[in-house]
Amino acid sequence: MPFYTKKGEIPKKRHTIFNDSDGKNFYEELISREGFSSIYSNLYHLNRPTKIKEVGNLEKKELIHAAKKHRSRHINTNKIKSSGDILTSRVPLFFNDDLIISIAHIDISMEYFYKNGIADEILYIQSGSGSLISNFGKLKFTKGDYVIIPRGVIWQLNPIDKNKILIIESCGPIETPNKYRNRFGQLLEHSPFCERDIKTPILQKAVKSEGDYLIKVKTFQGVQNYKYVNHPFDVVGWDGYYFPWIISINNFEPIVGSLHQPPPVHQTFQGSGFVVCSFVPRPFDFHKDAIPAPYPHSNIDSDEIIFYSKGDFMSREGINQESITLHPMGLPHGPQPGKYHSSIGKKHTDELAVMIDTFKSLKVTKNAISIDDKNYPYSWIDR
């Protein structure tokens, strides 16, 4: 998130001598995007962050497209039987060259550290609470939070209770929408959220400890295991524009109009090749002849994923909390029979959902196909 933040102790000038009260050197680390041409932060460590003790095994990971038909899909993720930590319980459902969409059902803390070296991550917390502890500090999360973790951050996720999480891994940076930022990067007055809604990490006391610290690093081939001599959370201070952050879907202020507004008004994030939108409780359209339900439409240039988080989904039947629908490009879709005109006169919606529109076709994994509702494409037939 591009605004300046400072935590802990840092020197007056970058790239200068910085010692503790006993005269011992701290070690500077720069984490930056696009080489040295985009946002960055400088971290200050008790020890050299490069001190590897062991290069371990590479755990190969490969996603395979298993779909045999191009059609709309309804995936009930409640049927997923997964458990473990956020890495071991992760079940990939859809992917393309720009992103991976997964579900994780988490019931234990991580006993190691993780760094995604090739993707930024959005964690949407469907249920439960806990903390994300990173080399930048601690972020407490709860139901409805979007947790944004830029690539290169070292972290652990510790649930307080069972967490259900929608995960988006993005090959490019996760950003706030261009249309809601001025030329300085500040969120504009008409943005549906502002910097006050964003939580930044609380830096913890630097950990001074030696041992065998396992860090799993995601690469293009899989997950590479490393062991480091020093605890990775040995940071005494940092400053810059690059860090993990949280914003709650409940702090997204809906934009409404007299007639039905198109999905871009719900946009919350942009990535490389996709956008993320938040559908939140809001008043319906107030023109006297308005039809509140979304109009049928064809996705000519995008695939549409909707994760139904909670509420009464007025345009659909048979959709449960934690359902995911896929409406692929080239096919029209919209409210199911009777839902379009029956919405006339309704004043308010209480639904909560996350939409992901991708500009390349999504591939479907075997995990998704195993819990796919094969009758969903026929749900628009008049009954």
Keywords:
383 residues; 1 helix; Jelly Rolls; mainly beta; 7-stranded antiparallel beta sheet
How would you describe the overall organization of this protein?
By secondary structure, the protein is mostly beta strands. Strand 15 and strand 16 form a beta hairpin. It has a seven-stranded mixed beta sheet, with no helix packed on it. The mean pLDDT is 93. The longest helix has 4 residues. The chain has a domain of 126 residues: Jelly Rolls, CATH 2.60.120.10. The chain contains one helix and 28 strands.
Summarize the amount of helix as a percent range.
under 10%
Largest sheet: 7 strands, mixed
Q: Please provide the count of β strands.
A: 28
- Briefly, what CATH class of the domain at 253-378? Mainly Beta
Known CATH architecture of the domain at 253-378? Sandwich
What is the general shape?
globular
Percent of residues in beta strands? 35-45%
SS element count, helices: 1
CATH superfamily of the domain at 253-378: Jelly Rolls
Task: Return the average pLDDT rounded to an integer.
Answer: 93
How are the strands of the largest sheet arranged? 4-16-15-8-13-10-11
Weakly predicted, low-confidence segments: none
